[in-house]
Predict the 3D structure of the following.
Amino acid sequence: MELQPNCYTDLCVNGKWFHYDHGERSVFMLNGGSPLTFELDSLPKTEAELEAHLSIISDQM
């Protein structure tokens, strides 16, 4: 699915929830009251690309 501008995606990857505002390089891992911020290497154009980025981040946690 293509990521639409001015939207966001909340996605669970490996049991960790992430929030991504489309068109941004930052992604947030929801962690109670203090979300963790990560920078993506490139802007994902599809949900599958976003999930691939998040899988790498999730595996490092």
